[in-house]
Structures are given as structure tokens and as C-alpha cells.
From TrEMBL:
EC supergroup of this enzyme: hydrolase
Gene expressing this chain: dis3l
E.C. number: 3.1.13.1
Protein name as catalogued: DIS3-like exonuclease 1
One protein family per Pfam: Rrp44_S1
GO biological process: gene expression; mRNA catabolic process; rRNA catabolic process
Major localization class: cytoplasm
Length: 1063
């Protein structure tokens, strides 16, 4: 049926516009209820029929209280088309997408009802009726329609904040109840305290918003039409606001579309970054917002400050060049708000801003220094002092100096370990609740009463390698979740070698679109922190059925190459699903001992007779030697292509009898690490070639673009100061230059140069092949034209996607159609962006957790008397008022001031000891000098100095380490003569000891309460990582988050690869 819809809208200039549209209504519109008796076309999510009622929220509730409707406990929610359109128009694209994602998520019992297209629920707007009244009437009409459509089998509750609507509609229709949100929560969800607290917080924020003043503090933003026209004409510049975390009050950069391509390696525009100086020029923009700026006249351009600030230590290269005047502008509009959850700290009572009868208005201080203070209205100001609280920004009007927001939940008292860990997770958008009961029901059962067995149909459909191949794994000691195994054997009388890489077949157990798959996609990765991990998959998969343990049958995805025994050229490659049984579960040290022909014990051979043991041992050793021979050839191939060796971390986790981590101890790199790494890289490379060839426009690959040359400036200049020449024209030239830049008297010089090279690297990213040209496929660090991630599906969702693509490619080779439709290029590109974002979040969270534990270690020590607080440091960068140093003993980077705020400078006595005197400081390209009445002291790049380490406490932000120079000579204590990682081992061991004491006390308290069931213990998120999981995390850092890799960890790329088996 055709009806005429008349809309009265306002133009951008405030003029009223009358719009007439044709509106089609029909009788059959899906209701998406399991109780439907009218045969509606209910494709997709369906509301269950066993609920006590369905909930239909009013427009105002959806617009203002959507956060409450996101609670999974609230089931049977019917969002009307009217409410969704109101969100789109009043809240913008971000909030509208949030609502759309909620409707798509099968984990939430909510559906969308197109009430304005249903003939009997459609309500034409009456003459003189306000939009708000019409919208409320539309929603009520939809609620009545639902009750009638379901023949009265389900009560309908409409929730609204409009008290007139409650009075008008509450008694009109039997079975349809109209109540306020507060009454609904009080009557139906009395125990859902978090929802009640959130409701109160949002209500207070809305009340305060109505009482805002009228005096303008900022200029109004320009309308979107003017912004878009200005961007097209070139007058305005669009970009993302990035606030300088070291100078948050003054400096922010607008990263333009061109300069943001550091991750893609391309650069197309002349203008790169625009400086926005001061808060007024930001004009209410918050870090991360997409903004539009207008340039100031060149006479008003400024340069970035190059002096040291607190917490500085991991800056990008090219800083000196940017100290010159650069394009400077001011924000004229905001295209997209990227507000998120923020953790804030409530100030002491005397700092509260204002107080009313019911609440106090507090300027809460965000944990992230780049975020402005947020005004919160609360009745719990006194109780929440010195607590970390999660808040959300609601608005920032031009009449307010600060944004307005509301509190969501309280994390705990600032400074407590669990509070700080949760703060790190929230600040990095990491949400990892325990796996739900519905997700765990999808898992296969494997218990002593009902052990899991290989299904006969899988035996028939898979290539069975159990009786033909010697399969073994090589992992860190104590590894439980084994996701890769290897095999190698001779064929055709020794003319051929067969190399095999066998990876856990996770996707067999996790069907695409299942609840477990959706949760894995949401997490995208397993998150590793200093003291715990949060798994991407339930433990029954990650640590059991998908773990390729020794002596048990397991499903695998395999790649088998036939190689010429002399040239090692590939003659044939096979991909497919297999059935394997690993014969040996080796750890790295054992495998290396076998390669070295040392007398060692293999646990699997212990029960055998001496003759059988010798034969089996000889067979295993021969396989390891063949594997090493092949890996050396593969590495040599990549070296010739320009593969890089970068700086990373070298640690090993030490576990107790219960698999709890007790320390990180030094671990020497072994050749077997490189052997395993090369095999995994080889598998990733060949799988990438296969899926890209089969699906040229919808394959998931991973590329590492060449870095921008200006990012190498610090590396080149620093090397030049030491007499070395670094050629950065290609990866091959860079690798050769770094190999030659060796100071025989100081091995740390080459190590620091490699750290600078790491810091200059662009980020390796996932992408869809349909979104990039083939020239963009190249992996700069590994020197490969095609690369992906295939070898760790237990902990990376990208690998699961690649497994599905490979399975589909193999099916097509057999003439079969893929079992599930593949994602389009657009869908896959969206997924890769989500995974890239989650990976960055995971790396940031791990880096912050390491820094947290570093501070916890030093916080309990007196820096004046404890020798562990004194360490050797090497200068790697010069700044206006000091230097940046690297402390190899603890893997710490940070600033060392040579001039303080009182105008005093560091002077050096005859014995090398440093003291502060009035004087001046002068910076040069390769050194910095301080001058005072007693003479001049000079500090040069790569000089070794002695520093004292202490903790700089912060009530509202994260604590940080403070480095103070005490001597211009190297630290020569006996402790510093130990390997550099020993200090980190001591650090973590001590912090873990303290955590264990706290844990023991908690266990004693818990022993007096109810105990967890076996199922709860088995499937809950793990808080203590096992050895394998900790080392697995290391591998991404070299090429995925170079800042974190350079700042936190200290070893070459092979340590990443051998722990993680890929890059």
C-alpha cells in the first residue's frame, strides 16, 4: 500500500524544509519471534519463546540509554525502526553502527522490527504533533502490534522516560505495559546492580547537561557540508588528531590521509602532518577524533619542542627535522568522534568543582594524559576518591571548558595490581569476559568418562600420516598448547626429501558463524600480559583437542613439499587436511642436544630396550639433521633477498610444578630456534601463494611495507657518529650495512643500531588482496613476495581465516564447491582492519603491563641504598636538555636530564661522579655539553654512563621509572657483568614472588568459601601463562609494533620467530 509521508526538516542554515515522500507499507513484515503463528519470513536471529516478556524501548531510551540495553542479561529486546532512525539522525554514524552491531550479534537477544513498513503498526504523523510525541506513539503502536501478532502469548513491556507516555498508554491495552526504565529495572532486574548504577549515572549526566551555561568557551564547528566542500577545494585538511603524550597540553598533530600511510608504505600528498598548538586550537577535539583543520598563516607556524619531558623514551626518528617550523593550524570541525571508554581517577574532596543537593560535579582526571579532564556528576564523590572509574563522554558543548560524561563502573582503588591491570585492558579496548555457557556448549567433550575419539568419517576424508611419517614437535620446555609439528623423510631412494609442516586444525572444531567463532573474531588474538593471558579460544580446544600433543591422534592442516635432495628445489607441494600422531614432544634444548650428538634422554624412548632405543634415537637425530640442513638453505635464500635481523627479546619462562610462572631467565639462542622458525615462515609463504592464486581478490595476506626514509635519520646519523655508513635504499642494503656496523670494543653499539632500525620500521599488517596491488604484497622484513599467517590458529583469528581459505582452495582443486560462502573483498578488508587494531591493542597492553611490573619491582626498593637500582646505561639519542638512554640490564629506555627546572646542569668531577650546579647546556648533533664554573662536561652518543633507577609515582596516571645520572663512567659492579637479561629475570621473579604471596593469602580466604567446579576451573580465563604461551607472544613484536619491540625487549628477529614460529 502506498502512503504519503510528509517530513518537516531543518536545513543546515536553520530554515524549515517540507519534504514529501512516498511511503510503502505492507502486511507481511518479519516479527523475528519463535512464537510466531503467521509464518513470517524470519531469517536470522529469532527471539526465544520461553521468556516472560519482550521489551520494546522508546526512542528516548534507545538514544540515551543504549548502554543499558547492551547488557546480555536483558533478553527479548525489540528495537523499532523508528528508534534506530532517531539514533542515526541524533547520535551520528558511530552510535548508529554500535546499534547495528548489537542487532547483528547473535550473543544478544535483540531484533529490529520495521514498524514503519508494517501496515497495522504504521502511524502517520498528525497535524501539529511534535516529533517526540509521534515517535512515542509509533513505538507504542509497534508494541501493541507485537502482542496481537503473537496472539497474546507474550506480554510486551514498553520502557520510556516520558512520564506523560506512561500515564497515557499504561492502561490502554491489556498485555502491553508501559513503564519507566527505573521501574523496569527495579521490578525485573533488581539484582543487576551494574545496570542500576549505570542508569543513575546517565540520568545525572542528562540532568546536568540541561543546566549548562550559555557563555561560549570555544568557536562553533562548521557544518558538515561546508567542511566537505572545503576539503575538496583544498582550503581545509582532514586527518586524525594525535595528541603528544609527553606534551598533552600543548602539542597535537593532525595525521593527514597521506602521512597516516606509514602502515601502507605509500605517500601521495605534499603536506604530511599539521601541528595544532594549545587546547583552544583543538576546539573540543579529543585524541583519535577525525577532524578538519585550517592552516594558520606561515608567520604563525611553530615547531615541535625537542627537549626532554617526563615518561619520554620511545620517540620516533626524524625528530630533529620536525623541530623546525611546520604547518600549523586549528580545528574548524569534527567529522567523526572516536570516543571510547576512559579510565579516570576522582580527585580529592577539596578539588571538587561544584555541589548540588543531589550530586557533585567532579573534574575527573583520565589515566591517559592525552585525554582532557571529564566532568562527571555523581552522588558518590567522597566514596570514589582515589579510585579508578570507567567513564564515557556524552557531549562537549561550545559553552563548556571540559567534556561532560557519566561513570559506567568502578574498577577499584588506584595502585592496586588488579585495578591497574583492568585499567590497561580497558584503555586498550580489550574486552575478555569468561566464555559463556552457550559458547562452551558448542565445545566437544573430552573427559575420562567420555574420551574424545577420531570420527570414522574424518579418517576416510583425511590423509592419514600416522603410520607413514615421523611427526614431532619442537617447542619451549613445558609447552602444553602445541599448534605445530614437523616431519621430514627421504623418498625415491634418497633422491627426494619430503618436508612437512602440520598445524592444528582449529577450524574443524570452530564452524564459521558459531558463537565460539564470533567470540574468537571479536578478540582476534590471545592477549598476553606480564602475569596472565586471556585466550582467544576455550581451553578445551587451545590446551587439549587442538594441541598436537605426543602419542595422541589429532586433526591437522598440513603442507608437504617434495624437494630435490641435492638442490633442495621444490618439485611438488601438497596441501590438505591430515590425521597425525606426534611421536616426540621435544623442547628446544633437547632438540639442540640431539643435534650436537650429546648424551641425553628422550622421555618417549625411556621404556624401550637399549637396541630399540638406539635405533629410534638414530632415526630421530637423522630427521633433526635433515631438518636443519633444509632450514639453513631456506634462510640463505631469504638472506640473499634482503631479510633483516632486528633487535627483540631473549627470555625464557621458568615454571613451578603447577605450571605457574616464577621467573624469566636468560636463554641463549640456539640453531634449532632458527630451524623451526624457517619451516614456519616457509609454510606461511607457500600457503599465501596458494590462497592468493586461487582467490586473487579475497585472500588474507600480510605485508610489511618499506619504511619511509626520513624515519631512518636517527639510525643514519647515530651510525655516522661512530664511523659507520648505513645504506637504507633497500632491505638488502640495510641488512648488509648493519652487519658491517660492529664495534669490537662495544657489542652494544650494533645492538642499539638494530634497535633504531627496528624503531624505524613500518608496521606489518593484514590485508585483503582485492584492496591492494600486487606491488604492495611484499614483506620487507622477511624479503618475501607473498606472506600470511597460517601456523598459529589457536591464538590468532587471522590464521583461522587462512585455514578456511586454504580448505576452500583445496576443495576447488578437487572440483568441489566451498562448504561456506567466502567473505567478499570488502568484508575481508573490514575484518583485517579489526584484527590489525586488536593486534596493536594487544601489543600496547603487553608493553604497559611490563612497565607496570618494572615499576612494582623498583617501588619497594630504596634507590639510595639498593644496588639493584644502579645500572649501566648507553646513550642513544641527544635532546636539548638531556639524553635518551638504554639500560640493557633491565631492557628499559628513558630520559636522563642534564638540566633541571631550576637552571642547574650536571657537572662531572674528576672521579666521574655527577652533581648539579648552575650553568648552561648546549646541544650538538653527536654530543651534548654542560658548562658551569668548574668546567665543561661532554656526553656523546653510545657513551656508557651509570644511572640510578627510581619510581616516579602518579596518583592519576601510570607510575613511571625515573633515570638519574650519577656517574659519566660505565657501571662496573659484579652484578652488571652478568648477562643483561639476568636483571629482568630478577625483576620479574621478585614481582611474581610478591604476587604469589598475595595469591596465597587470597587462596586461604577462598578456601573458606565455595570451591570452583572442575568445569569452571577448566574453562575459565587463565590468569597465569604457561611457558609456551609467554614465549608465543614474543614473535609479533619485531615487525608489528616496533616501538614496543625496541622499548621493552632486546633480541633479534629470530627470537620472535622461534618462540612464535613465524612473523
Amino acid at each position: 500500500m502506498l502512503k504519503q509521508l510528509i517530513l518537516h526538516l531543518k536545513s543546515c542554515r536553520g530554515r524549515k524544509v517540507r519534504v514529501v515522500r512516498e511511503h510503502y507499507v505492507r502486511e507481511r513484515v518479519p516479527c523475528f519471534s519463535a512464537l510466531c503463528q503467521a509464518d513470517c519470513d524470519n531469517d536470522g536471529k529469532v527471539l526465544p519463546g520461553d521468556l516472560t516478556h519482550y521489551v520494546v524501548p522508546d526512542v528516548g531510551v534507545v538514544v540515551d540509554y543504549l548502554e543499558i540495553l547492551e547488557f546480555r542479561e536483558l533478553q527479548g529486546i525489540v528495537f523499532t525502526q523508528t528508534a534506530c532512525q532517531a539514533v542515526q539522525h541524533s547520535k551520528g554514524r558511530r552510535q548508529y553502527n554500535r546499534l547495528r552491531n548489537l542487532l547483528k550479534d547473535p550473543r544478544h537477544d535483540c531484533v529490529l522490527f520495521a514498524n514503519e513498513f508494517q501496515e497495522y503498526s504504521y502511524c502517520p504523523r498528525e497535524k501539529g504533533e511534535s516529533q517526540e510525541k509521534w515517535q512515542t506513539r509509533c513505538v507504542y503502536s509497534a508494541a501493541v502490534w507485537y502482542h496481537n501478532h503473537l496472539a497474546g502469548m507474550m506480554d510486551i513491556v514498553m520502557i520510556t522516560e516520558d512520564q506523560d507516555a506512561v500515564a497515557q498508554f499504561s492502561s490502554l491495552s491489556s498485555g502491553v505495559y508501559v513503564v519507566s526504565v527505573q521501574d523496569y529495572l527495579s521490578n525485573f532486574w533488581m539484582e543487576l546492580h551494574a545496570a542500576h548504577e549505570l542508569y543513575n549515572s546517565i540520568s545525572q549526566a542528562l540532568e546536568e547537561k540541561e543546566s549548562e551555561g550559555t557563555e561560549k568557551e570555544y568557536t562553533e564547528h562548521l557544518p558538515s557540508e561546508i567542511l566537505e566542500a572545503g576539503i575538496k577545494s583544498g582550503r581545509y585538511i582532514q586527518g586524525v588528531l594525535n595528541v603528544n603524550k609527553h606534551r598533552a597540553q600543548q602539542e597535537a598533530l593532525i595525521t593527514t590521509q597521506a602521512s597516516s600511510n606509514k602502515n601502507t608504505g605509500t605517500f601521495t600528498a605534499a603536506l604530511r602532518d599539521v601541528l595544532v598548538y594549545g587546547g583552544k586550537n583543538r576546539n573540543r577535539a579529543v585524541h583519535g577524533d577525525v577532524v578538519v583543520v585550517e592552516l594558520l598563516p606561515k608567520s604563525e607556524w611553530r615547531g615541535k619542542v625537542t627537549s626532554l619531558t617526563e615518561r619520554q623514551g620511545d620517540e620516533k626518528t626524524g625528530e630533529d627535522e620536525k623541530s623546525k617550523p611546520m604547518p600549523t593550524g586549528y580545528v574548524v570541525g569534527i567529522l567523526q568522534r572516536n570516543w571510547r571508554d576512559y579510565v579516570v581517577t576522582f580527585p580529592p574532596r577539596e578539588a571538587t568543582q561544584s555541589q548540588s543537593r543531589n550530586s557533585q560535579r567532579i573534574l575527573a582526571i583520565p589515566w591517559d594524559p592525552r585525554i582532557p579532564k571529564i566532568r562527571i556528576s555523581t552522588q558518590q564523590a567522597d566514596a570514589l576518591q582515589d579510585h579508578r572509574v570507567v567513564v564515557r563522554i556524552d557531549s562537549w558543548e561550545s559553552t563548556s571548558l571540559y567534556p561532560n560524561g557519566h561513570s559506567v563502573r568502578v574498577l577499584g582503588r588506584a595502585g592496586e595490581l588488579e585495578t591497574e591491570i583492568q585499567t590497561i585492558l580497558i584503555e586498550n579496548f580489550i574486552h575478555v569476559p569468561p566464555f559463556s555457557e552457550a559458547q562452551l556448549k558448542e565445545m566437544p567433550v573430552n573427559s575420562p568418562e567420555k574420551p574424545w575419539k577420531v570420527h570414522p568419517s574424518q579418517v576416510a576424508s583425511r590423509r592419514d600420516l600416522r603410520g607413514t611419517h615421523l611427526v614431532f614437535s619442537i617447542d619451549p620446555r613445558g609447552c602444553e598448547d602445541v599448534d605445530d609439528t614437523l616431519s621430514v623423510r627421504t623418498l625415491d631412494g634418497g633422491k627426494l626429501l619430503e618436508l612437512g609442516v602440520h598445524i592444528a586444525d582449529v577450524t574443524h572444531f570452530v564452524p564459521e558463524g558459531s558463537l565460539t567463532d564470533l567470540e574468537a573474531r571479536s578478540r582476534a588474538t590471545t592477549y598476553y600480559l606480564a602475569d596472565r593471558r586471556y585466550d582467544m579460544l576455550p581451553a578445551v580446544l587451545s590446551a587439549d583437542l587442538c594441541s598436537l600433543l605426543g602419542g595422541v591422534d589429532r586433526y591437522a592442516m598440513s603442507v608437504l613439499w617434495e624437494l630435490d635432495a641435492h638442490t633442495l628445489e621444490v618439485t611438488k607441494v601438497w596441501y590438505g587436511r591430515t590425521l597425525i600422531r606426534s611421536s616426540y614432544q621435544l623442547h628446544y634444548e633437547l632438540a639442540q642436544a640431539l643435534l650436537n650428538r650429546e648424551d641425553t634422554e628422550v622421555p618417549e624412548l625411556a621404556p624401550l630396550s637399549p637396541e630399540e632405543k638406539d635405533a629410534k634415537l638414530a632415526e630421530l637425530t637423522q630427521a633433526l639433521e635433515m631438518l636443519t640442513h633444509v632450514a639453513r638453505h631456506l634462510r640463505a635464500q631469504r638472506d640473499r633477498g634482503g631479510a633483516l635481523e632486528l633487535e627483540g627479546v631473549e627470555v625464557r619462562a621458568q615454571l613451578d610444578a603447577e605450571k605457574n610462572i616464577t621467573a624469566l631467565v636468560p636463554r641463549q639462542p640456539l640453531e634449532v630456534h632458527e630451524t623451526v622458525a624457517e619451516c614456519m615462515i616457509y609454510a606461511n609463504h607457500w600457503v599465501a601463494r596458494k590462497i592468493q592464486k586461487t582467490f586473487p581478490h579475497q585472500a588474507l595476506l600480510r605485508h610489511h611495507p618499506p619504511p619511509r626514509q626520513e624515519f631512518f635519520s636517527q639510525l643514519v646519523d647515530s651510525a655516522k657518529a661512530r664511523g659507520f655508513t648505513i645504506n637504507t635504499s633497500s632491505n638488502k642494503a640495510l641488512a648488509d650495512s648493519l652487519d658491517r656496523a660492529v664495534d669490537p670494543e662495544d657489542p652494544l653499539v650494533n645492538r642499539m643500531l638494530r634497535m633504531m632500525a627496528t624503531q624505524a620500521m613500518s608496521q606489518a599488517l593484514y590485508f585483503s588482496t582485492g584492496a591492494q596491488s600486487q606491488e604492495q604484497y611484499y614483506h620487507y622484513g622477511l624479503a618475501l613476495d607473498h606472506y600470511t599467517h597460517f601456523t598459529s590458529p589457536i591464538r590468532r583469528y587471522a590464521d583461522m581465516i587462512v585455514h578456511r581459505l586454504l580448505t576452500a582452495a583445496v576443495d576447488l582443486d578437487k572440483g568441489l564447491s566451498p562448504a561456506v560462502a567466502l567473505a567478499t573483498n570488502k568484508e575481508l578488508e573490514e575484518t583485517t582492519q579489526h584484527i590489525n587494531n586488536k593486534n596493536r591493542a594487544a601489543q600496547r597492553a603487553q608493553k604497559l603491563s611490563i612497565e607496570l611490573f618494572q615499576c612494582l619491582y623498583f617501588k619497594e626498593r630504596d634507590p639510595q641504598t639498593d644496588p639493584s637500582c644502579v645500572a649501566d646505561a648507553a646513550i642513544y639519542a641527544i635532546r636539548d636538555n638531556g639524553v635518551l638512554v638504554f639500560v640493557p640490564q633491565y631492557g628499559v629506555k628513558g630520559p636522563v636530564y642534564l638540566k633541571n627546572r631550576d637552571g642547574e646542569v650536571v657537572t662531572v668531577g674528576q672521579d666521574g661522579r655527577c652533581e648539579w650546579k648552575t650553568g648552561s647546556v648546549k646541544r650538538y648533533s653527536e654530543h651534548i655539553s654542560t658548562t658551569c664554573s668548574s668546567g665543561t662536561s661532554t656526553f656523546t652518543l653510545f657513551d656508557h654512563i651509570t644511572v640510578r633507577i627510581s619510581v616516579q609515582p602518579s596518583r592519576c596516571h601510570a607510575d613511571s621509572l625515573n633515570l638519574e645520572i650519577i656517574s659519566n663512567k660505565p657501571h662496573k659492579s659484579a652484578e652488571s657483568q652478568q648477562p643483561h637479561s639476568q636483571g629482568r629475570s630478577q625483576l620479574v621473579q621478585e614481582v611474581v614472588r610478591q604476587a604469589e604471596e598475595a595469591s596465597q593469602q587470597a587462596q586461604e580466604r577462598a578456601s573458606r568459601g565455595p570451591r570452583l567446579s572442575k568445569e569452571e576451573r577448566e574453562f575459565c580465563q587463565s590468569k597465569t601463562p604457561n611457558l609456551y604461551s609467554l614465549l608465543e607472544e614474543i614473535r609479533e613484536l619485531a615487525l608489528m609494533d616496533v616501538g614496543a619491540a625496541a622499548n621493552v625487549f632486546n633480541m633479534n628477529i629470530y627470537a620472535h620467530l622461534n618462540n612464535n614460529h613465524c612473523t
